[in-house]
Description:
The structure holds two protein chains of two kinds.
Chain A: E1 2-4, E2 10-16, E3 19-25, H1 31-38, E4 57-60, E5 63-66, E6 79-81, H2 95-102, H3 112-125, H4 131-138, H5 149-163
Parallel strand pairs in A: 2-6
Antiparallel strand pairs in A: 2-3, 4-5, 4-6
Helix pairs in contact in A: 2-5
Chain B: E1 7-10, H1 14-24, E2 28-31, H2 37-42, E3 50-53, E4 63-65, E5 69-73, H3 78-82, H4 87-90, H5 92-97, H6 104-107, H7 112-118, H8 124-132, E6 135-139, E7 144-148, H9 149-152, E8 153-155, E9 158-159, E10 166-173, E11 180-185, E12 195-201, E13 205-211, E14 218-223, H10 227-240, H11 251-270
Parallel strand pairs in B: 1-3, 2-3
Antiparallel strand pairs in B: 4-5, 5-10, 6-7, 6-10, 8-9, 11-12, 12-13, 13-14
Helix pairs in contact in B: 7-8, 10-11
InterPro entries (chain A): 2Fe-2S-bd (IPR002888), 2Fe-2S-bd_dom_sf (IPR036884), 2Fe-2S_ferredoxin-like_sf (IPR036010), 2Fe-2S_ferredoxin-type (IPR001041), 2Fe2S_fd_BS (IPR006058), Beta-grasp_dom_sf (IPR012675), Diverse_Oxidoreductases (IPR051452)
Domain 2Fe-2S ferredoxin-type (chain A): 10-86
Keywords (chain A): 2Fe-2S, Iron, Iron-sulfur, Metal-binding, Oxidoreductase
Amino acid sequence: xTRLNSNARHAxxxxxxxxxxxxxxxxxxxxxxxxxxxxxxxxxxVGCEHGVCGACTVIVDGMLTRSCLTLAAQVDGCxxxxxxxxxxxxxxxxxxxxxxxxxxxxxxxxxxxxILMSLDHYLGENPAPTEAGIRDLLSGHLCRCTxxxxxxxxxxxxxxxxxxxxxxxSDA
Amino acid sequence: xxxxxxxxxxxxxTSEALEALAQQGGDARVLAGGQSLMAMLNxxxxxxxxxxxxxxxxxxxxxxxxxxxxxxxASVRQAELLAWPALAEALPLVALALxxxxxxxxxxxxxxxxxxxxxxxxxxxxxxxxxxxxxVLLRSAKRRRRVAAKDFFAGxxxxxxxxxxLIEGISLPIARDGRFxxxxxxxxxxxxxxxxxxxxxxxxxxxxxVGGVADVPTARDWPRLDGTALDDALNAFAYELGARDDxxxxxxxxxxxxxxxxxxxxxEVLQ
Lengths: 172, 271
């Protein structure tokens, strides 16, 4: 049993994109705020803060997770992946990110980090996705710029490319 | 949109969680998947002094098939139940209703029992529990008790759970060559239901359960009915549910949905 007192900060440790991290948090601190404020990982965006918009979606132990509906204390010892972990290196975008760029699947970009995490997870489990499946997944995200159509296009294109990984269609 | 301060307790065993609930009573809230409670905390609609996190209690993470029922533990996530290979055969109504609960991104974390504890009148899992006539397994430091679905939901977001009790799990009867149907109308898939209905064939006729209209999901049994007798029964039921106008839909639209969906689903299961 671990009991964390409300008026103190407590150490929280987990693995973030493969690297061990540690910082302090009050029990009430949300994972979204912990990532951004304590760890400086500001790729994860905070929209509605009650689980509706999907902008803050990350992956915790292989599960899609609203980081605004999760306490930092809850994920102690877990493995967390955020949008910062998608690019293979600092100067190169991942396949899905390249497809987003080609298809104009983002405009203001506020919702994009969450959508990328959902799609990255989904394409990993469904290598041959249907448009209906992607639409169902995207119902958990709000995008007010694109109208979703370019996002669906990008996801299908990325899936096709991941199925035949030799072709590189962009230097981005 | 940040929660008020609380102590956080990560329980390793059920007895630790029960002990904390016994001591703290109504000032404590049980945290499972957090998909309803965390939003309430963020909006400060709930301000508990203590959160008891039960997700690392191994004994609550079980889907157990018994002779006539399936017991689903308190820390079983909705996505885990959806992925249970026997779901469609043992609990076909759950298999139909569960994909309507929230979104993929919330089902991955949210628990089946957490949705019942939250008791939103338009939520799918409370409706399913009532339709199937399942039971809620409650446990405190002193005693265990089983509460029938129809007695568990006491009002909008109110249940029969006492402050010192934990929902240990639920028990759902296994389907025996039954026919089931489920349909929901919402603004978008995954949004809260304006009206959700479940129908099943019973030994004496048919049962229709409706969520999103009354304060609690409500089931009604009829003998085999058709034609105007069925229309009249559905119309009477739609009025008895006491629909109200709100921002999502008018009372009249809700009654229309109950009559229309009810008729469709009953036709489906009695085919």
